[in-house]
Predict the structure.
Amino acid sequence: MAQPLRKADFGKHVSLGLTVAALLLCLPMASFAQATLISLRHHKPAPANPPAAQPAVHASQPPAFSIPVEPLGFAAPGPIYQGQRMALASLDFLDEGRLLFTFRAPGLIHRDASGADQRQIRALVLSLPKGNVEDEDLWTLHGDSRYLWILHDGSFLLRDLNDLRQGNTNLDLKPLLHFPGPLLWLEMDPSQQYLVTDSHEPGQTASEPGQVPSPDTAAASVTTDGSDTSGEPNIVLRILRRSTGQVMLVSHVRTVVHLPINSDGYLEPLRGRGREWLLNMNYFTGGNRILGHVDSICTPTLQFLAPQEVIASTCNIDGTLSLSAISIDGLHLWDAPQPPIQVWPRLFFSAGGLRLARETLVVTHPIDAYTPLSFDDVKGQFVEVLDAATGKVALKASASPVLDGGGNVAISPSGRRVAILDAGAIHVYELPAPPPLSSREQSHPSR
């Protein structure tokens, strides 16, 4: 069983009970594809040179401008990557006038002495609208999962094995945190004050200079140096202050856990009656409160869009998926259903939480246990941009090549620009200003 999270210099003692959370919270890699029993199967070998995917949908408006990506060195990944959910690119706004475009440079995959796969990631800072390259670099990274997280000030976090580095708009990198084992997952609260990390670590670690002290064992500490460790591996979940690396809460868990947090605490879904799931807010200072509830036949995935607003991704009894927005005051704000032929949803938020993008694969038929997903069933990738205050759709467009690991959609800090990698170019769409999150005229209490 997972051990409960323990506090490290953060007010009164908090018993968070991650045993329940680890069992109930959806894993970040699992999403709702697994909840609907989706499996990717190749009915026949993929062609060596498959035809270009047809657009899944016509864009609801033309782009303001486009930047061709072939001159930048980007090449569409081969069909062998389809269905593996690998992070092959990352498209991010540094600010309203610059994009950070990073992608796997073509070439053989190398394996270092530790057995980890190496890959070369090309990083480009592009000025808008012309797409001129302001800065560029080539990074050697390991593994195939997400490697980059953008920060609100235009800097970014870069993950590689045990290390987390911070980069600036000039692509200069500096060490930020060193973990006793490989970093498997990272997420932040909307204000980006705190990090939630899952790392695969030895069972026991020795105390070394530069370590952040733990209230439990030295295995709960993160170091600022490269000190070596040994022992039996396990997964350690932490909440840390991003500015200092101070460990606030820690737990040993059996698998990677998605833990939605804001600056006040963390949120977990608790099983109610029938299809009902209660949204239980656990405060860092102690105590908890039920914010409301959602109906879902699978465990809902919860994410803080903004400090005061939660997005719940749910499964409906008819096989469709939905997004529901709930305020921390218990108001049910809006619902956005998703057709059954759109699967593997991913969400991307603007820095201020005013807009969100939902990206899905578009397939030929609804997916269930009797009709699994095959390679031939994927028609393309679909992007829908919604206003966070109302749930209204601000943009619809396609994305290609299909990158089921994400990284081909970005929203600017203001929410007024959306960049999508599609048909050999980065298309940048300009949208009206989004309504403020305080616009609650259409809100009503959770049922």
Remarks:
- Helices lie at 18-24, 31-35.
- The two ends are 34 Å apart (CA to CA).
- The chain has two helices and 32 strands.
